[in-house]
Amino acid sequence: MKRIKTAIVGASGYTGQELLRLLLLHPHVELVAATSRQEEGRALSAVFPRFSKVDGADLPFMLPDPDAIAATGAEVAFLALPHGVAAEIARALLERGLKVIDLSADFRLRSAATYEEFYGHPHPAPDLLEEAVYGLPEVRGEAIAAARLVASPGCYPTSIILPLVPLLKADLLEPSTIIANSMSGVSGAGKKADLSLIFCECNESARAYGVPKHRHLSEIEQELSIAAGEDVTISFIPHLIPVNAGIVTTTTATLKDGASAEAIGRVLDEVYGAMDFVRLLGEGSCPDTKNVTRTNFIDIGWTFDPRTNRVILMSAEDNLGKGAGSQAVQSLNLIFGLEPTAGLQFV
Amino acid sequence: MKRIKTAIVGASGYTGQELLRLLLLHPHVELVAATSRQEEGRALSAVFPRFSKVDGADLPFMLPDPDAIAATGAEVAFLALPHGVAAEIARALLERGLKVIDLSADFRLRSAATYEEFYGHPHPAPDLLEEAVYGLPEVRGEAIAAARLVASPGCYPTSIILPLVPLLKADLLEPSTIIANSMSGVSGAGKKADLSLIFCECNESARAYGVPKHRHLSEIEQELSIAAGEDVTISFIPHLIPVNAGIVTTTTATLKDGASAEAIGRVLDEVYGAMDFVRLLGEGSCPDTKNVTRTNFIDIGWTFDPRTNRVILMSAEDNLGKGAGSQAVQSLNLIFGLEPTAGLQFV
Amino acid sequence: MKRIKTAIVGASGYTGQELLRLLLLHPHVELVAATSRQEEGRALSAVFPRFSKVDGADLPFMLPDPDAIAATGAEVAFLALPHGVAAEIARALLERGLKVIDLSADFRLRSAATYEEFYGHPHPAPDLLEEAVYGLPEVRGEAIAAARLVASPGCYPTSIILPLVPLLKADLLEPSTIIANSMSGVSGAGKKADLSLIFCECNESARAYGVPKHRHLSEIEQELSIAAGEDVTISFIPHLIPVNAGIVTTTTATLKDGASAEAIGRVLDEVYGAMDFVRLLGEGSCPDTKNVTRTNFIDIGWTFDPRTNRVILMSAEDNLGKGAGSQAVQSLNLIFGLEPTAGLQFV
Amino acid sequence: MKRIKTAIVGASGYTGQELLRLLLLHPHVELVAATSRQEEGRALSAVFPRFSKVDGADLPFMLPDPDAIAATGAEVAFLALPHGVAAEIARALLERGLKVIDLSADFRLRSAATYEEFYGHPHPAPDLLEEAVYGLPEVRGEAIAAARLVASPGCYPTSIILPLVPLLKADLLEPSTIIANSMSGVSGAGKKADLSLIFCECNESARAYGVPKHRHLSEIEQELSIAAGEDVTISFIPHLIPVNAGIVTTTTATLKDGASAEAIGRVLDEVYGAMDFVRLLGEGSCPDTKNVTRTNFIDIGWTFDPRTNRVILMSAEDNLGKGAGSQAVQSLNLIFGLEPTAGLQFV
């Protein structure tokens, strides 16, 4: 089988490194380009000693030049760039005939106005928003398969949206009562020399941040609104905890009048029971990040509290895996008609 | 100044160890007894190498025999025992004229029926419930000062109750909308050889547990109901995160009609601004456990989200400090008329 | 290609779990049996939620009965059992025609007397010692390929022996000056409910242990003696540090008269430069455990100190990977004539 | 009792923060000045939320101006500055009549040539070297008490020198055989925004660094040479491990001909048995960093290996405590004739 020639643009951060790991191992992918301004000319394996003696890791980093990327024959490019920067190179690569799977926030919102509200500057490529597909494979698999431009979701949104969507679609929850508390590993903050991220500032520490209006709220509310068929506004409180990777999210919502607790489990099972990367732990079980790190799984548990009439949904995923890199690879598999689990069968 | 002769019953766990640390250093306390069945006859410093060459730590552990404890001349005893066990020895010590500061759950609830509902067995000493004072010094300082039997609060309840009480008293919050998510260090689970607590099971892991009806809910709801003047039922979701000590709690609640966000900060400031161990970080600031570990401080931050009309309250404390040991010492200071900060001025 | 029917005996500990992970993913292996007395009848995925929805993980645990294992058609069995227990089942499986790759210490020593000296009881199967091959593929590849019984080395020995063997063979080091200091992650202590292993006892802690005569010294000295052609006695000091997995070992030795520092790098390069799983970082580079966790690589760096005439050798490996599970799979690949990297190409 | 007016120059790093903690709590100290260029004008408690509501922590940071410091009436200044910078301000403060306790490396070496060899630039104040006293209170208590300028030792040197000095003085060890392996917490690397220090790069990682000629070797060898009465050259290999604070050091050395293992324990006991801050764990016991963090203790264990004729010395200390801040306070107590344990009786 012919391998898909693939590029990673912005491969020197934590998400980029995870994409490298996944694509170097993917049986149907040939990594033909990886870009990094700082590391240009150095082999992947020189920059990341972890990849030394790994097949394909002698590839040198190149500059993020669209023509040069296209010249490698790449059919698809993953973008692991800051928001605002990704849009421009996405357009350039699309114009050169590549498919683009963008892991930044640039194409996740349908509304350029919402983008400007949450990100503080005008959208850099509003004309592409209509075409972009929000890349949650469990929710929008068909659209992803047909897409030229996929906006792969953020880590927090994935952990919040997936448990809620089937329940909102089934009209079981009061949308206005949704409150999500997430705890994320430090890799979610990116690989940057920031004093607040050094070991002694994060170890033996836990704290909320980004309240009350974290940027990812915008895509969360967009997707929940679509599922609910009405505008949904929620509370979202992210926290930083001292683990390298992993997110655990606890979401509470009030059951609608007439909805039964039993329906929660039934609907989740109907929608996700047969899906490859969603694991339902069942009522009363609490997911643990350690079971999902370095995988593409999201584990979901739930319970109902009759005292408050609230459902408690709990999910765990790897913020660099299902929350970033491996979820983007899931989209690649859909776009190119590969087995859904190709390159993602690690545990 | 005469030192207060003090005993610790059940001094070999994490809470007991923290009490040892605090009382060995307390300038107005003489530690005359520390009990442990397993360690009987061994010096504190032999069991806890950390206390080697510390003044007073050559005291040998004794059996938890009430007569023997009374014979040491102890005027007050701290109980760091499992619930169900503490009540009996509390009674015996009270009968022998000691004051008792109990860190178990045995005397925290006013209702024996609620105790049985949450703890699964009949209350072991229901006749003492009326006399016991729930030992939150910031809320019940006068009663504690006059008490013979103090029920020192649990770690989760302290972190949830303190931020809420002034706001409920001021009628600013809708009690039925309160949802508390807490993240606790592993020492909160106690010092026991449990497979789920070994390093590799907790490190690089985060998970909810004990949903939806954790035992501490009972005392939380009791205290919030008193503050609100009505029955309060809340959602409480505890999580375990890989730190030794510390709890961070995020509580959301809807503002009552007519209440203003400004009132939140004002009320907190009026009530807590001058208190020794509550530190208000101000609007928009998020407390971090690393600033409170090994202290008796609770740090409180808050923010208001006009999009949802919800207040977000965030608190951080040391689960073994303000959440257990040092808070109990605060009660000791009140009972014996000491400076409120005596023995608690560490940072 | 026909898959090799494979069994894991003792699959519920950390090493067993790592073997499960590797063998479930191995392209040329079919896992037909996994044993655990405690978990008998439960599916692998039920015991280890990490393996849920992983192909092959619905296999139920069975009892470690040799006849039952043989009845599955298994051609080879990995033993992840305590020393003393492994020998008996190894014999039974050999008698039933299986190859055995034993990860315990039972067959690592050539001398039953040395075994008794270090392990405190007579060897349980001394007649099998002559046949057993010490399973260090980089040192004894040919013998492993022909073996019926492989004694897969311990984690500390691998990290100490591999850097030293070529240098001792080349007569560059004074054997009597060898001192090895190792730091190991907590998983090396096994999955057991031991108070000294709980999170709060290991986190924010570092300590030596097992001095001066750790059991693994016996196999280390045996292998170094073979390489040196003379009896070698060394100092070995293991330490426990708060990471889940990984060992870093620092070994010092005095250069022999007439030996040159340049020869160190040259010899290492000649012997290991082309090997799949040894990565030479070069002079002056220090290996980091985080680059080798969950891989079969051992990273080796070195430096020479002219002030003391000592070579400093540094190695890093995953104690559950190259130090246990994946190294054992390397032996499987040799025995069955597979690609050396089959099933081991993860990063 | 009059409090000693004290200044901290360079109080915004980890060592500075530890000094702040210690001096704010010291019963005989009044903190009158703390300097930081970046934080000038901000209160200590604003920069370090941990010190909020702590007595004395409303002091604002000032610029490190010698005249301004002297104008506060300070009698003594602690310098927690980078090497090369400390010397100049030390001289200026000495000229203004202050005592100086310098925690940098600037005055630790007796030889300006050795300083230049190890630190790469000429010594900034060679005329002060003769006067400076190497501030190891257990070794040089009398000289410290009479000193105007104390060079407080580094963290690694303290952990290596203290166990060795009595044994070298007693002529029990072969100096040329000394090899020290140390593992340090990340705070030892300082509080700086360095990519190699961010959480995800240090967590789940262990690595050697700085081989073979770490800067601290110079002061270690100087002090060991004085104790041995001959030039001593050793091997020293530092490692970084993922804990906030703490150093554990393992030192091996060959016993001299005619020396007995029993003498090791006897000599250590004679010299250190009655000292306040050295705790001898006895033969066969291994010190653990978790017992010494946030204290001024150094714990020492040892064992003898008759197979190799080597002594294994193990020590544990807090790199910010006995290895930096609290050891400097020990010198303060000596200089001003206070109780040796004043302000250091925490556990």
From TrEMBL, chains A, B, C, D:
Active site: residue positions: 155
Swiss-Prot/TrEMBL keywords: Amino-acid biosynthesis, Arginine biosynthesis, Cytoplasm, NADP, Oxidoreductase
Superkingdom of origin: Bacteria
TM regions (residue ranges): none
Semialdehyde dehydrogenase NAD-binding domain boundaries: 5-147
Name of the protein described by the UniProt record: N-acetyl-gamma-glutamyl-phosphate reductase
Coiled-coil residue spans: none
CDD domains to which the protein is assigned, alphabetical: AGPR_1_C, AGPR_1_N
Gene Ontology CC terms, in alphabetical order: cytoplasm
Oxidoreductase keyword on record: yes
Protein family according to the UniProt entry: Belongs to the NAGSA dehydrogenase family. Type 1 subfamily.
BP terms from Gene Ontology: L-arginine biosynthetic process
Compartments, as annotated in UniProt: Cytoplasm
Gene Ontology MF terms in the entry: N-acetyl-gamma-glutamyl-phosphate reductase activity; NAD binding; NADP+ binding
Pathway in which the depicted protein is active: Amino-acid biosynthesis; L-arginine biosynthesis; N(2)-acetyl-L-ornithine from L-glutamate: step 3/4
Native species: Haloferula rosea
SMART domains: Semialdhyde_dh
Pfam families: Semialdhyde_dh, Semialdhyde_dhC_1
EC number per UniProt: 1.2.1.38
Catalytic activity as recorded in UniProt: N-acetyl-L-glutamate 5-semialdehyde + phosphate + NADP(+) = N-acetyl-L-glutamyl 5-phosphate + NADPH + H(+)
Function: Catalyzes the NADPH-dependent reduction of N-acetyl-5-glutamyl phosphate to yield N-acetyl-L-glutamate 5-semialdehyde.
